[in-house]
Amino acid sequence: MFQICTLNQTVSEMKKRQEIGRGIRLAVNQSGDRVRDEKVNVLTVVANENYEAYVSRYQGELEEAYGTSGLPPKPPNARKPGVAKLRKAVMLKPEFKELWEKIKHKTRYSVEIDSELLISEVVAKLDAVTITPAKLTVKKGKVVAADGTEKFSAVLAGRSEKTLTVKRDGLPNLVAVMASLMENTTPPVRLTRRTLLEIFRGTKSRTAALANPHEFATIAVRFIKSLLADQLVNGVRYEKINQWYEMTQLEEEIPSWQDYLIASPTSVYDHVVFQSEIEEKFVAGLEHDKRVKVYLKLPAWFTVPTPVGEYNPDWAIVMENRDAHGERQGKDLLYLVRETKDTTRPDSMRPNENRKIECGKVHFEKALGVSYRVVKSAAELP
């Protein structure tokens, strides 16, 4: 029996299919032979809302293709490899060359950190949580098996708890523990030991910290990393450097599955590779918008450095500057970078995802002078 527990918010439908594909492989016994027992080959998916909707749709596709008779589906041969090919004639169009000239520049960032503000915010967070003394819990149980069956049940026979008392001479160096926890995370974070000591001195939870030092250190580091990341992003500044991405870096062919390719007369490639339903709809919207002159799904190597990791924006677009009635508005052409999400609300995104987007906005708009925005559909482009 197999389980998939979705702890992360997977956006790519291709990734979801790969995960489910691994889960529905036939089990292998200790002899290396495939097990074909239906009671063994069961996949359970513990899904978040996004994943649940996808699994339901995928199950419907399987039932439509193979029926609901309970028989295992035949191995499908419908998926065929495909390829998106670079159209050099489109790449050399003046409007695309101008777009690339605007977005190609690499940048470096600098940040401003307000140590006093960080300390006060972390202390406020620590004072609002309860840090309980360490406890040792002992549970006793037994397994009861019914006669003549393979079923069994676990029964709790007893439980006891004891609060652990930490002797003062056995206390760890709290500052050293906090520094170690911060350095052994991804990405590693470092603050001066003086700052960490000021956080401990400022909190009202000092007694609780001494009763459960590791719990205090773990909670404190979690608050420090979150609040520090917010400060880094809010204070980030970008400047162009004497390096850039070359158009010659664009691959001549991008392999994919035909299921994830959309033919495109407008893109730099003859097909666009999409990774989610929202991207598929966005491409369809671009293709039907007569104002769009040319666009590109930015490759994975086209990244922007941020304090919380590399950021790869979604789309670069050139479109005519016209209103809903077709009237020209100011400049003839608009040069845009757009990120596609199923929501534009920052509180609905993962924290680091939102932070990268905020850095991307500063990079493109402040350093390069290119319009940048998060959109849900092509209708929100201008």
What do you see in this structure?
This protein is α+β, with helices and mostly antiparallel strands and 382 residues long. The chain has 3 domains: 2-66, no CATH class; 81-108 and 240-380, Trna Endonuclease, Chain: A, domain 1 (3-Layer(aba) Sandwich), CATH 3.40.1350; 115-234, no CATH class. Helix content is 35%, strand content 25%. The protein contains 11 helices and 16 strands. It has helices at 13-23, 49-66, 88-91, 94-103, 115-127, 174-183, 193-202, 206-211, 213-234, 277-288, 351-367; strands at residues 2-5, 27-28, 34-35, 43-46, 81-85, 105-110, 135-145, 152-163, 237-244, 253-257, 261-263, 271-273, 292-297, 315-322, 328-340, 371-375. Strands 13-14-15-16 form a 4-stranded mixed sheet. A two-stranded parallel sheet has the order 1-4. A hairpin with a 6-residue loop joins strand 7 and strand 8 (152-163). Helix 5 (115-127) crosses helix 7, helix 6 crosses helix 9 and helix 9 runs parallel beside helix 11. The two termini are 50 Å apart. The model has no long low-confidence stretch (mean pLDDT 83).
Topology:
Blueprint: E1 2-5, H1 13-23, E2 27-28, E3 34-35, E4 43-46, H2 49-66, E5 81-85, H3 88-91, H4 94-103, E6 105-110, H5 115-127, E7 135-145, E8 152-163, H6 174-183, H7 193-202, H8 206-211, H9 213-234, E9 237-244, E10 253-257, E11 261-263, E12 271-273, H10 277-288, E13 292-297, E14 315-322, E15 328-340, H11 351-367, E16 371-375
Parallel strand pairs: 1-4, 15-16
Antiparallel strand pairs: 2-3, 5-10, 6-9, 7-8, 11-12, 13-14, 14-15
